[in-house]
Amino acid sequence: MNKRIPIIIGLMVLVLGIWVQLTSYEPVQRTLERLQNLAYDLQLRTKILIQGKVPNSPVVIVDIDDESLRKEGRWPWPRSKVADLVNQLKQFGVVVIAFDILFSEKEPDIIDTVLERLTKQSLLTPTINTTLEKLHAYFDEDTQFANALQQLDISLGMTFYPTNTAQGLLPNPILTLTTPKQKQLGFITLPGYISDIPELLSAAKNAGFINVFPDSDGIVRRVPLLIRYGDGLYPSLALNAVRLFLLSDVSLITAPYGNTIRLEGIKLREHIIPTDNQSQVIIPFLGNSFTLPYISATNVLHGNVPKEALEGKIVFVGSTATGLGDLHATSIQGVYPGVEVQASIAYGILSNTFSFKPAWSIGAEIFLTVFLGFIFIFSFPYLGPRVLSLLIILIPVALILLNNYLWQKTGLIISILVPLLLPIVIAIINIVYGFLFETLRRERLKEMFGQYVPEKHIDEMLKLSGKSYGLLGEDREMTVLFADIRNFTTISEPLSASQLKDLLNEFFTPMTEIIFKYKGTIDKYVGDLIMAFWGAPLRDKRHAQHALSAALDMQTAVTKLKAEFAERKLPEINIGIGLNSGIMSVGDMGSKFRRNYTVLGDAVNLASRVESLSKYYGVKIIATENTQRDQPHFIFRMLDRVRVKGKKTGIAIYEVIGKNHHEISKEKLEEIKLSEQALQFYFQQNWSQAKELFTKLNTEHPDVILYHLYLKRIAEFELNPPAADWDMTYEHTSK
To answer: Using CA atoms, how far apart are residues 68 and 299, in angstroms rounded to an integer?
Structure first.
């Protein structure tokens, strides 16, 4: 397969992946962000799947739940009851209370209500007025709540608004932006707020915002710790609660990026909180809702709580009651209490368990994309479809597991969406390209070799590169076979052209099947001749053995054909076969108008000459010594040493008798042994001994032409002895 094309396509995919990570094109950015968020949600849910409740948590949630409303009355409760709740928490040894509730309006005073109604009905007398005024302090719920708030560190709740709204008392900022560079920091800035009534906030002295900002898909994944209003920075409820708990100031961690600075974190004592430039933190979810300890508010009011459950803790007061609870859609759960979001952030600050995605993470993601991309691009083209199909599963799983391990150990979040998709896309490209390439290659091979080699050869060739089956031409050691019908002119004379065509088709079909059976390649049909070779297009170390086996089976098939032809009154067919092995040139040869996969060379010509000698020696199959050599499974009889027309050197030729000794009769084996003994006397110019043995053989086997030939040749040599430098070679001057 041409590796260049899938590599080039892979590089184009890599460039596209990098562009997707860097582009500011909004539709692409939005789509990528949503996919990355989805991947983050899946990873987060996997990460916390096995986590249970948090033991010994420094953060506890006091929940105004359905049970509390059922026992204590509907919400809103009188401020005196909330004051009782604060007093009870103080008795339990709570350090900090954070209200995930706004007290933005004054509590109606019942004395003022009575005075107003009596006045309207003209029923108010000075005595009644004096009496009610004395009772005023006993029914001032806000004052009672304010008095309770002064007893310990408390952070009330507030919220910032995107419109110019100003309601309630705004607390003092915990930080003020003074320098121009600080003012360039990307804090979320909002122009309005709703805070608590002045009487309560003056008593508590602290408030933190409870704003959350969902991502574009409506899911809450991150929360700002600071919001800018004017030049002041105001803390979230969670940050403010921990600040009071640690008695620590808040400081910013910034880093220069060119001519500007970027926010990278917030510091509270030794606690470093990693943030983005907007001061947002990724919510450190510990599990589904109610993973942190929850205590019903009614149990606190009635003292039905173990002291150790609250002592020394930060308590977040909020509600999960039906129709009242502050609920959000989050990464891990579609309905998640807002109070637990704040409590989880506080827990994350104290336990240093924040995940973070720093500004340089995009550089790490691009490096990972390029690094892995090059590995995939330059390795996948060399892998098979089965391996690639397996890698499509294994590589993403491995990347997810490694990323989760990094996340667990360091808290660092690296988006692996693009690196995750790269191996899948590149593998699919290689599989599809490989399929198309193999399909075209199969068609090309079928077009080129379909008539010359068996179908299974083509399947094996598809596993190899083009050079492995010699399309461009190369020299190989191979075996070539020529098979020719004897006396074809005489056979064809009484037959019409149609009859002759049918006869040749019936002859060539079984011959071709036998050649294919033994992994041979048909070179050509020339009239009544078949030319085939072994060792190409597929390499074959046993090319000579396979060619010899095919030759023997072809003669057996001819014997069966003769019987069939005789029944149909068709002419008798006999064939002579010649075999030779040696170095031959093989390849796709010809012109631009017509080409053929064929073999050329002296070794091919010698096989053709040897086939023509089969009639002269009166045998069916002749193999040269090149083919006969190292073939112990076959029975041969040496015929002669010959020099054919066009050759200067002689070569030994053999009749191929059959396979294995047990298939040949003892009489035939004795005949072969005696024949070769006579031939040795002949080569030694021991004419009398040779003549004696050949005469004996001729008498016993008068139908064997070979013995007649040697008796005639010996008689000539007795009259005219060969030259002194005779090399035992008989020269044939005709083709």
So the answer is: 8
